[in-house]
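Lab notes, practical 5.
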Amino acid sequence: MNDRGNEVIQTRDGGLAVIGSTESYAWHGGRDMWLIKTDADGLMQWDVVMGDTGDDLGSGIAQDADNALVAAGTTHYDESNWIYVVKFMEEFNPPVPSFSYAPPSPFYIHETIQFNASGTTPGGSGDDIVLYEWDFGDGASGAGMTAEHVYIKPGAYTVTLYATDTNGIRRETSQAVTALGLTMRWESTFGNGSDWFYDLAEGDGDNMLLCGINCISSSTCSVWAAKVNALGDTLWENVYPDTYSGRDAARKGILGHDNNYILAGFRDKGATGDTRDVRIIKLDASNGTKLWDKTYDLNSYDEAFDLKRVPSGGYIVAGAGSALSGAGNIDAWLIKTDENGDQEWSQTYSNTGDLPLRGVAVTPVDDGGYLIVCSQYDSFSAQPIISIKTDGSGVELWRHTISNETGSWSNCGSWVYQDPDSNFIIAGTLNDEYALITLDNDGDSHEATTWGTDYDRDYIADADFIPGGGYVMTGTQYDTVNDDDVYVVRTDSLGNVAWSITFGEPGIGGENGNAVAYLPDGSVVVLSTDYYDQVTRLTKFGPPALIKGDINGDSSVNLSDAVLGLQLLAGMGLPSPVDTRIDVNGDSRIGSEEVIYILQNISGTR
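Output from the prediction step:
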């Protein structure tokens, strides 16, 4: 990049010396002087880059009577230009960069790849490697003898290591790697046509909570919850009826502050005229036993759509409440509870023109307040997305409205999160397309990244933040051939799509993604409803499970693994980093227990 040669001379050994400047190696900043020494055929023998934070240019080159090369040029220092002259030793011996990585290629996206440049050697006696730089081939870079990187998009990449020694000589080496897309690991189904799970909650080790509605008739339904393990097997399952014989459901479930589960939804009081109340239930995570059950009544038609932990304690609930009788007089509603579910305060927020307003998503804010994302209706329609910022007591501070374009069919914000820069990230649908919206923390402006098909039923129902940056989302994709399919997408922090998956039966409608979670091992779990087959599906996508004891990564435990384990125990080292996730006893290292485990597997005694 912007590399220039200013002079070339023939050296007494028949080769060439070229002096110029470069920005390609300009880790100092600006342009740097670049001296290149070649053999008689023009093949580089060594090069050296020198400079400081300003522009340092190489102008002339000569060889003195002792065969040393002498370079001259200008340097910008202390706000002035200076002339410099540098005499180089007769010959530089360049460093020899080398690196290894694990797990081996091809690996899977979302896996942490460990790179190690400890095999790099300096060129001359007494020289050291002073700088390791990495180019991972996907626009990301790193520094240090060891580095980690996660690829988020399937494809082939070239990884390049740059090693610089104490003389300023820089060399590079590259290896091609391949990142594979996630594959379906397993799928579990639940329900029989009258039972549906709406949400999932992770964080309880490898286990997950599912929550929704269980019906014994069209008018009698109870809150339904189940705990499943890392393979989707049910650990416990319970229903939680209310004293009224109505339709009760949990729309949202989370892991509480004490690692038990909190569910939020509604209870339906049937023919009493006071139709619904917000209902919050706390469950013992170990067995599903109900610990407490609280209801909140604003007027006649109240329900909860979202629930979050508050960092200072307690929980914040977003939903809708009827300020007056009837389902048409709806205000957005925030309820703050303590750890025991007792209400500390509540606030309602009205729309303009007597239009309804529902709080569909909420997040605590780093200043102690809250942001609630609202829609007019509880279904996708031509409506604005309204975000309301409150203080710690729920008092409205500002609101931001994102209007729908004329002719668009659907707008809705379904999920909200405050990012590390204190901006608000809203996932949903904007003008009939999938959308990731960034709203600044003052509510003054927003930017949106949108994508989708040519049809008007593409929407995002849920999202999850990925540590290190980016989001995974699920919803529905519609087309005239496949009808409704479950849609899963991974984006970077700006909403640029890294990959997407759709699944469902061709030509069959009613397959919708409801909830999604990104797991620590890089897997993605999707909860979806299949109204055609009358089941809820829990599907896990990820890399194949690692085999304990498989040190060399060949998907089996064999003699080679035993040899590598013994080498590690003897301190002999290995030619490549070891992925310590294959350890046996969970101490993130390969030790004697792993070697014994491998030998027992080989001998058939285990």
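Observations recorded by the TA: The longest strand covers residues 155-165. The chain has a mean pLDDT of 86.
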